[in-house]
TrEMBL record:
Listed transmembrane segments: 53-70, 132-165
Gene3D superfamilies: ABC transporter type 1, transmembrane domain, P-loop containing nucleotide triphosphate hydrolases
Descriptive protein name: Multidrug ABC transporter ATP-binding protein
Annotated organism of origin: Paractinoplanes tereljensis
Assigned keywords, A-Z: ATP-binding, Membrane, Nucleotide-binding, Transmembrane, Transmembrane helix
Length: 507
């Protein structure tokens, strides 16, 4: 997937308008020293007031035109850049939200921010390069009209400089890609360490974790410095060459003026153009580095967006609850794989995984997707009302990233409340109460039953668990071994008659 070409294609009209307007702006800026030189020769040297007023008026019109062109061109390009950056972030987010995606958190952070920005900046680079080429071409023509040797210096020197500088682009691309890759790895390690800080303290592994982060952070620093050094050397070389080229033109013009080959006004024009050419020369010489940066970031985005997700667990769900049924499933092994078979993306099915995800925000924002009259009932059914009541600000209590300030049981209850509030036709729960105490577990089991399986309910609930409290409120329990049903019945009957079931559940 060529991210850069696609960015140009889907922003082509704004990009075209921006290129034309920026090119007009640069052309007008090029004409400014030309008009000033003509004013010196045709108005100042002759002492004609009328000509002076005419040329000054033309100069004012040039400034008005170049200002208007730049303002409108920049508006078009900034809108295209912002839209493209937003579109890239949405693509990255959509890929990451795929439950089967295998992406490091740090990579998501750097790709969705730095890389998305760098790739979309191409829409700013293209018109700047076009404008610089127009300015260089107009300047070369103007210089040729004054002196052919001066024009040839620009026409021949500019391509040679660009070709020489282009040889450094692949190295810049590689080093920037390495920098972003290592930075993503460092962010991933930092995220993992912050998330697992409590367990690390519990087992006394803080020093080992600190050492690991120092190593990857040091590697990231070295890669960043190497990339910055490469870019700095490239920028220094491009600026030096641009200054030497512009300075050479000015020196040659001064010699021509001393020998009488050009007039005073033409000297003013050449000096003005030489000073102005520093900007387009700088832009053209820096362009290979810009493109290399955008390409490195685009390649990382393409690798993520174009990656194949992890294969879905093989096979269809082995069993589904009947309409209105609460079904318990005891899987002796591979319960997570079993749960994954139900996650087919259907809007009628909601799979609540064993490890819940909470986000920075308030309790309300983590649970309520829209106004719901049953919020209080859901909070009671999941025992999340205790979590809400434990804080003075209730539902508006702020939650840290991933709910790191909450206990495991509190996170489970809030995630269960969110799942219950969604009212899916089929709700699949995977061990939703492993981090709560026995009394709370019994309360949650009864709450799920009462909320989703009232008389006449058409909702189905499937609970993959070995919890006796949860299995006791189900209508039916199915026991699986190697994906095959080996026993079925109520919790009470299986507990009384099936030794394997008792061994799996009553531990």
């Amino acid at each position: 997937m060529n991210i850069l070409w696609r960015a140009i294609a889907r922003n082509r009209w704004r990009l075209l308008a921006g290129c034309l307007l920026i090119a007009l702006h640069q052309a007008c800026e090029t004409f400014v020293p030309i008009v000033i030189g003509e004013t010196v020769d045709l108005a100042v040297a002759t002492g004609s007031v009328s000509r002076l007023v005419t040329w000054v008026g033309l100069l004012c019109l040039l400034f008005l035109l170049l200002t208007t062109a730049y303002r409108n061109g920049a508006r078009q390009l900034m809108r295209a850049l912002a839209d493209e950056s937003h579109a890239l972030r949405l693509e990255v987010a959509a890929k990451v939200l795929d439950p089967r995606a295998e992406v490091r958190t740090g990579d998501v952070l750097t790709i969705s921010t730095t890389d998305a920005d760098h790739a979309s900046y191409l829409l700013d680079y293209v018109p700047r390069i076009v404008g610089a080429l127009v300015a260089t071409a107009v300047s070369a023509v103007g210089l040729c009209l004054i002196s052919v040797p001066l024009g040839l210096v620009v026409l021949l020197g500019t391509p040679l400089v660009l070709i020489a500088l282009q040889r450094a682009a692949p190295r810049i691309t590689r080093r920037i890609a390495t920098r972003q890759e290592v930075a993503g790895r460092a962010s991933s390690v930092a995220t993992d360490l912050v998330t697992g800080l409590r367990p690390l303290r519990g087992i006394g592994a803080q020093e080992a974790a600190d050492t690991r982060y120092r190593e990857v952070s040091g590697e990231s620093l070295r890669a960043t410095l190497l990339a910055a050094r490469t870019q700095g050397l490239f920028q220094a070389a491009s600026n030096s060459i641009s200054a030497l080229l512009a300075g050479g033109i000015a020196i040659l013009a001064g010699w021509f003026a001393l020998t009488g080959r050009i007039s005073a006004g033409e000297l003013v024009t050449v000096i003005g153009l030489a000073a102005f050419l520093g900007e387009p020369f700088g832009t053209l010489s820096a362009a290979p580095g810009w493109i290399a940066t955008a390409r490195a970031s685009a390649d990382r985005i393409a690798d993520l967006v174009g990656s194949s997700p992890a294969p879905a667990p093989a096979g269809s769900p082995p069993i589904l609850p009947a309409t209105g049924e609460c079904l318990g499933v005891v899987a002796e092994a591979d319960a997570a794989e079993l749960v994954g078979r139900y996650d087919d993306g259907s809007p009628d099915v909601l799979v609540a995984p064993h490890h819940p995800e909470l986000f920075s925000g308030t309790i309300r924002e983590n649970i309520v997707l829209s106004a719901d009259r049953e919020l209080d009932a859901v909070l009671r059914a999941s025992s999340a009302d205790d979590v809400v009541d434990a804080h003075p600000d209730g539902l508006d209590h702020p939650i840290a990233e991933r709910g790191s300030a909450l206990s495991g049981g509190q996170r489970q209850r809030l995630a269960l409340a969110r799942a219950l509030l969604a009212h899916p036709r089929l709700l699949v729960l995977h061990d939703p109460t492993t981090a709560v105490d026995a009394v709370t577990e019994h309360s949650i089991a009864r709450g799920i039953r009462d909320l989703r399986h009232r008389p006449g309910s058409q909702l189905g609930t499937l609970i993959v668990t070995t919890s006796p409290a949860l299995l006791a409120v189900t209508d039916r329990v199915v026991m699986l071994r190697d994906g095959e049903i080996v026993a079925t019945g109520t919790h009470a009957s299986l507990a009384a008659l099936d030794p394997a079931y008792r061994a799996a559940v009553l531990r």
